[in-house]
Amino acid sequence: MLETIVGALGLVFGSFLNVCIYRIPRGESIIFPSSHCPNCGRKIRWFDLIPILSFIILKGKCRYCKSPISPLYPAVEAVCCLLAIASTRVYGLSVSAFLLFLIGCILIYISVVDFKTYEMSVTSILLLAILKFGFEVSLKGVLKTSMTFVVLGPILNALLVGLIYLITRGNAMGLGDVLLLMAGGVGFTVRQAIVCNFVAFLVAFLYVLGLKLVQSILKGNEKKREIPFGPFISIGIFVSTVAGERIADLYYQLIIVR
Ligand SMILES: [Zn+2]
């Protein structure tokens, strides 16, 4: 019962996150006007705004002008729903669970906006740093929260990409990537920073590999599109925040101690 409510709240929040993702980078208000089709401008009625369900019923098209609706909308809602359920499963109904959910949401926001526009806003990165600090404190308490890692975590986490940024003079990695790693690294231990970077590069590598495979199968004209690194860093930050220490332990058990 609890998970159904939490999941439903996650869906509703995901729907709101979609509004933020669409409107904030355009400098529009997230409250007024009410939702409208970006193509024909018709106001979208409440029964067409039900998360995921409306997308399926409308077959991914606007009710009036039949222009396609991006599948990113229901995807964001679905991920938010799972995120809400997973956060409460790990931390129960607590401040930590809520903060972890918000960390996930801001990472989704940063990822989708970076994917679409190749840009990251400083405000969203700053918000991530504050949420990560709050999450650390909620888990360990103010006194036990190691200030060492609050300060050192960001430096450790951004070390590798920061060096790549400096050596390539910003051609391979952007300043946004470095700042995102710093914000996500608040409270990270050395092990968590390593896991975060490892996961980010691994997922990016698999993504590029998959993309090349699909392109070779379809034999379509290769569109040379730059790949934003933000989404992969976001995945690394989230995975390491939740399970960085455990993944490091597992690694030691599997490889070092034999
Ligand atoms: Zn329309």
Automatic annotation (TrEMBL):
Q: How does it sit in the membrane?
A: Multi-pass membrane protein
Tell me which EC number(s) this protein carries. 3.4.23.43
Q: Which residues form the Prepilin type IV endopeptidase peptidase domain?
A: 102-209
Kindly state which keywords UniProt assigns to this record, in alphabetical order.
Answer: Cell membrane, Hydrolase, Membrane, Transmembrane, Transmembrane helix
Sorted alphabetically, the Gene Ontology BP terms of this entry are: signal peptide processing
Q: Does the keyword Transmembrane apply?
A: yes
Gene3D superfamilies recorded for this chain? 1.20.120.1220
Q: InterPro entries recorded for this chain?
A: Prepilin_IV_endopep_pep, Prepilin_pept_A24_N, Prepilin_peptidase/N-MTase
Prepilin peptidase A24 N-terminal domain residues: 9-87
A Gene Ontology cellular component where this protein is annotated is: plasma membrane
Name listed for the protein in its UniProt record: Prepilin peptidase
